Amino acid sequence: MDVNDNVIADIRYFNRFYTNILGVLDRTVLDTGYSLTEARVIIEIGMMGQCIASNLVDILEIDRSYLSRIIAKLGKDGLLIKEDSTVDNRTSLISLTSKGTELYKQLNEKSDEQIMRLLQGLSQKEIKEIHASMLLIQKKLERIKR
Fold first, then answer.
1. How far apart are CA 35 and CA 41, in angstroms?
2. Fewest CB within a 10 Å sphere: which of 23, 29, 46, 103?
3. What pLDDT is stored for residue 68 in this prediction?
4. Where are the domains of the chain?
């Protein structure tokens, strides 16, 4: 594969640009007091309703021991609970508490607001172009597994 050095530089520049816009490198995400990874764990559990740790490991492609520490912290903070599975006593089911559900909703709302601010001032045509470009990038890169 022959990739021009300028293409690589442009893609790397875009990655730095976009992570800065989203605040990905901030200590906490969306002023919640939680890191991006912790917030993603909360979001994934919120979207699934209930899950097991191995689901999160697969979805987030995260180290199992790191996830275990995050789950312990979020549990200590009262955001999630672990219950023994009635099907397999070796497995714990993880779900959000009411406090965790509130944070999940807050993360979703703040994420939507962040995107709205990002698109503010752009024409409908520009928004559609950005949207189509993002979908195209996602489609092209989905085939590639890290």
1. 10
2. 23
3. 94
4. 30-142
